[in-house]
Amino acid sequence: MGDSQDNAQDDRQGHAVRRRHGDPERGAGTILMGALALLALLLVASAALLLQAASAASKAATAADLAALAAADAARGLSSEDPCSAAATVAEQHRAVVEDCEIGATGPGTAVIRVSVGVPGLLPDAVGAARAGPPP
Fold it and tell me: Whole-angstrom Cα distance, residue 42 to residue 89?
């Protein structure tokens, strides 16, 4: 009886020793899953930034096109407004700001407009440019 108790005690001590020194890979799965979750989070954030940039670029291009058309119409006398003021009004309606307005630079009745659209967050402002008027 004493012999079996000694073996049981030795087993418990041996198990305690093994647990103390442990398997060097114990917990590696947790660290790996944490790293994979972090990588997935970074990929999702990067995709969100790219989508935000693409959306802002599209808005800037649309605002520039419409502002250039409004300025060209005013430059040709189809409206009584100043061409650059007409461009600024249309750009404001599309949440854009006219950065540059050139009337007649590429021919009579033409307008070249450059606008910017603010992007919240880390990205710089999106810029769009357009020319409108009769062909050169």
Answer: 39
CA distance to 66, 72, 95, per residue, from 108 (Å)? 19, 9, 28
Distances (CA, A) of 4 to 10, 14, 15: 10, 15, 16
Average pLDDT, consecutive stretches of 10 residues, N- to C-terminus, the chain (136 residues): 55 52 73 94 94 93 96 90 94 95 88 93 90 86
Sign of the alpha-carbon dihedral angle for 10, 12, 17, 22? positive
Q: Which residues contact 57 (CB under 8 A, 6 or more apart)?
A: 126, 128
Contact predicate 53/126, CB 8 Å? yes
Distance in angstroms (rounded) separating the CA atoms of residues 14 and 27? 21
Please, which residues have CB within 8 angstroms of residue 127's CB and are 6 or more apart in sequence? Answer: 60, 99, 114, 115, 116, 117
- Sheet with strand 126-132: strands edge to edge: 97-103, 111-117, 126-132
Angle between helices 83-93 and 28-75 (to 10 degrees): 150
